[in-house]
Design goal:
Distance between the termini: 91 Å
Helix content: 55-70%
Strand content: under 5%
Shape: elongated
Number of helices: 2
Largest sheet: none
Oligomer: single chain
Order of helices and strands: HH
Structural class: mainly alpha
Length: 133
C-alpha cells in the first residue's frame, strides 16, 4: 500500500527519512551523571511523564492542525509548481533563445571585423626583431 494506489502508507510514514532527526528519546535529552542520581521511582516517573506528554500533545496538535497544514502546504506546492511551469521555464527558454541569438551576432562580429584586424596587427608585429647591443 502506498502512493501507487493513491493512498498514504500508514506503516512507513517517513520512507525517505525526511524527519529522521526528530527521533528524540528520553535518553537523548536527560542524563544523570554518576554523582547525581534521583530515586529510581522519580526517574521512571519522569520517563513516563515525558513520553506520555509528548505523545498526547502530538496527537492532539496533529488531530487539530494536520488538515490545515496539509491544505496550506498543498496550496504552496501548487503555487510553486504553477510558477515554475508557467513563469520560470518560459523565462529560461526565452533567455536561452535571446542569448543564443546574441552569441551568434557577437561571434559573427568578432570573426568578420575584429578577427582580420587582430591578424593584420599580429602579422605587422611578428616582423619586428629585437636585438640587444
Amino acid at each position: 500500500m502506498g502512493e501507487e494506489d493513491g493512498r498514504p502508507d500508514l506503516v512507513n510514514r517517513d520512507p525517505n527519512s525526511v524527519n529522521g532527526e526528530l527521533n528524540v528519546r528520553f535518553e537523548d535529552i536527560f542524563g544523570e551523571p554518576d554523582g547525581a542520581h534521583s530515586p529510581e521511582c522519580a526517574w521512571k516517573c519522569g520517563f513516563k511523564c515525558y513520553e506520555g506528554a509528548r505523545n498526547i500533545c502530538y496527537i492532539i496538535i496533529s488531530a487539530l492542525c494536520t488538515w490545515l497544514c496539509g491544505c496550506c502546504w498543498g496550496c504552496d506546492f501548487a503555487c510553486m509548481t504553477f510558477t515554475y511551469i508557467w513563469c520560470c521555464t518560459p523565462t529560461i527558454q526565452i533567455s536561452k533563445l535571446i542569448c543564443g541569438s546574441c552569441e551568434t551576432l557577437y561571434s559573427t562580429f568578432l570573426n568578420c571585423c575584429i578577427g582580420p584586424l587582430c591578424s593584420a596587427i599580429g602579422l605587422f608585429f611578428s616582423n619586428i626583431k629585437v636585438q640587444q647591443a
